[in-house]
Description:
By secondary structure, the protein is an all-alpha fold. It contains 4 helices and no strands.
Amino acid sequence: MSGIGEYRDQIQAGELRVLAVTGRARIPGVDAPTLREAGVDVEFTNWRGVVAPPGIGDGDRDRLVRFGLPVLPAVLGVILGPAAEQQMRRALQLSDGALSGLVNTTFSVVVYVVVAAILLWPLVRRVKRVPEREKV
Length: 136
C-alpha cells in the first residue's frame, strides 16, 4: 500500500494494476473501487508526516512546526525521494553504472551542491553554536 503519486507512472504504463483505493472516494483517473465498494469495510488515508524523538522539548518542537531548516530536507525527501531515486536509477543504467553520468551538465552539479548545502546547513549551524554555549 502506498500513495498514488509513488506509482502513477507504473500504473499508467500498465506495469501495475490498482486493485482498490483505501480512501473514502475513488481517485479520478484511476479505474479502481474503494475498499468499501469492493466489500471490505475499511477506510483510511495514506498518512505522511514529520516525526521527532519522544523527548523533544517545546522549543525544538516549535521550530520544527514553523518549518525551520531541519525539517526542509525531510519534507523534500518524502516528496521528491521516489522520483529522484527513479531518475538516478535511469541515469546509472544509461551510463552503465558510471557516476560521471550523474554530473554531466553544469546544472546537475549546481543541483547537487544546493542539495548538499541544504542537508548540511543544520549541522553547520549546530557546530557554530557550540562554542557560543561554552562561553556562557
